[in-house]
Design a protein that fits this description.
45% strand; eight-stranded mixed sheet; alpha+beta; globular; 141 residues
């Protein structure tokens, strides 16, 4: 498994991939050291499994659903278009609101592209929150 993160941004060829190449998506968001929620979309053989768990207690599954590959494609297309121009790291050392987030996109060839932030967000971050039905002010309730 090859994970691309801020440390090796020069080796990434993001434009090589399309939304059809997406296999899995994992989105984590929370406050430092507590209340992390993990949203996962995992492609199985003929369907996509959707879960939301609390990172501090992964045995507590809050949401669980299945989607056909056909149903999930528009969602993958939407996420892919949202992150197309993102940098890999968003961090603001001057402002600390306590929110940490990470989005991992796994492609069919095993490549993982990792986007992360610490009290700083891409301009269209709210579009990603909308995909997961989140409001930043209420994301941790």
């Amino acid at each position: 498994m090859n994970i691309i993160s801020v440390r090796d941004t020069k080796s990434v060829k993001k434009n090589f991939y399309t939304s059809d190449d997406i296999k899995d998506i994992s989105f984590e968001i929370g406050f430092y050291h507590s209340h992390f929620k993990v949203y996962q979309l995992k492609t199985k053989e003929k369907y996509v499994e959707s879960t939301m768990v609390y990172k501090h207690d992964p045995s507590v599954i809050q949401e669980y659903d299945f989607f056909s590959i056909t149903e999930i494609k528009p969602l993958f297309n939407n996420i892919f278009s949202i992150v197309r121009d993102w940098r890999f790291n968003y961090s603001n050392v001057m402002k600390k609101d306590g929110v940490v987030w990470e989005l991992k996109i796994t492609y069919n060839d095993g490549q993982i592209i990792d986007y992360a932030g610490d009290s700083h967000y891409p301009d269209n971050f709210s579009d990603l929150l909308d995909v997961f039905g989140l409001d930043l002010d209420k994301a941790f309730i």
